[in-house]
Design goal:
disordered C terminus, mainly alpha
Length: 417
């Protein structure tokens, strides 16, 4: 039974996600030469609409290729007995639950990193280079790939090993839930201070008009000036970006130098105010709570599967905690793709609207709208997605929707609470 249900769920998830990608492809073909009427008045003069749609189409090609590669990888890993063989080798080498779980989890992470590298190469040196965005070199790409692979292998191994160790304890369910919560919080605290420096050189913002303007913004909002860092994103791409990360005293707003060096001061300040809005809205904590609910559901599923009997036999696995946890995760990942993905995307889009509104109160709605327009124009990001595709995957509302929301209210300039 378990095997049949797994293949049905995996097939359903693959079909749904492939169908969404094909719907997006058809949508892009329909708007290729025809700007949607509601969007036309918002487009800046001289924006290359056809070029933007072409860029979206190439990115979709990468998305679909990566998606199908990942599903094929899972199917081959489980269906060919690869997971069972890897589990037996891991248990021979390190028979304990943590050691074997660490080896199997690391193996899975490295395997999927490797099979997705061709698509990452195509995206970086094919798509991004073709449209003039790429600045990465083969050496830097290799360094980033190896660093990311080592990091994902370490994290996946630790999680798999820790889960395998905890599930056999007397209070395994409660311990697994507590472990997931502690891990999420620790990663949120440490990400901006330990993980980001592995990929970016971080520095304080230099003296100048922008720093003076931001110091005024920090004074109004209560955000510490020391928490703003500039990252050397220009080593990899011309895309401008900014984001909020971390919790408590380790929180950071990271501004890419591509944005800090090219945007007018008022628009750069509006972007920073948007990121402070995520802090004011406690969006990281809210997202972590939703993530914990998904993880708790996985823990419940894993314990139910392991306790029901027949789970290991259905997939040819040794009846040991580590391989069973990995198989339960692969099973649950397909379930998450069907149900949790659109819910988490919806929450993220809501947070973006809230952060936009906060930025409008701080720096003015029109200033924030101009900043969004510049970001979209510089990155060819005006192209809207097909509604179902956007509902499933989009973590940000479309640029047009965000600008229209800002202009529908035009809130007064004040930091708010």
């Amino acid at each position: 039974m378990w095997s049949t249900v797994f293949w049905l769920v995996l097939s359903a998830a693959a079909l749904v996600e492939t169908g969404l990608a094909l719907a997006q492809w058809g949508w892009l073909n329909r708007i290729d030469r025809n700007v949607p009427p509601g969007l036309a008045p918002l487009l800046p003069s001289g924006y290359g609409w056809w070029r933007g749609v072409s860029y979206a189409r190439e990115r979709l090609r990468v998305h679909l290729g990566t998606l199908l590669t990942r599903y094929a990888g899972v199917a081959l890993l489980v269906g060919s007995g690869g997971l069972a063989a890897a589990s037996r080798r891991a248990l021979e080498f390190l028979p304990g639950p943590f050691g074997s779980g660490f080896l199997i989890g690391s193996f899975i992470a490295v395997l999927f990193s490797l099979i997705e590298i061709p698509w990452e190469l195509f995206e970086t040196f094919g798509v991004e280079a073709r449209f003039g965005f790429n600045r990465s070199t083969p050496g830097l790409f290799l360094r980033d790939s190896l660093t990311g692979m080592l990091l994902s292998a370490s994290v996946a191994g630790f999680l798999a090993g820790g889960a395998a160790f905890l599930v056999i304890r007397p209070a395994g369910f409660a311990l697994a839930l507590a472990g997931a919560a502690v891990f999420d919080l620790a990663l949120a605290f440490l990400f901006p201070n330990l993980v980001l420096p592995l990929f970016y050189r971080m520095r304080p913002l230099g003296d100048g008009p922008l720093k003076s303007r931001l110091e005024s913004l920090f004074g109004k909002t209560g955000f510490p000036a020391s928490a703003l860092l500039v990252a050397d994103g220009s080593r990899r791409s011309t895309h401008g970006n900014a984001f909020f990360a971390g919790l408590g005293r380790l929180r950071k707003v990271v501004l890419f130098d591509t944005l800090a060096d090219s945007f007018p001061d008022d628009e750069a300040a509006a972007v920073v105010a948007h990121e402070i809005g995520h802090w004011k809205g406690r969006h990281v904590m809210k997202s972590l709570f939703v993530l914990f609910i998904v993880q708790a559901a996985f823990v419940l599923f894993a314990f139910s599967a392991l306790g029901a009997g027949g789970f290991a036999e259905a997939f040819g696995l040794v009846s040991e905690p580590a391989p069973l946890i990995i198989m339960a995760f692969l099973f649950w990942e397909a379930v998450t793709a069907l149900f949790a993905q659109p819910l988490m995307s919806s929450l993220s889009r809501r947070h973006e609207f809230e952060a936009d509104a906060f930025a409008a109160r701080c720096e003015g709605a029109e200033t924030m709208a101009r900043a969004l327009s510049r970001l979209a124009s510089d990155s060819l990001a005006w192209t809207p997605s097909e509604p179902r595709f956007a509902a499933w995957y989009a973590t940000h509302p479309s640029i047009a929707d965000r600008i229209l929301a800002l202009r529908s209210d035009l809130p007064a300039r004040s930091p708010g609470k």
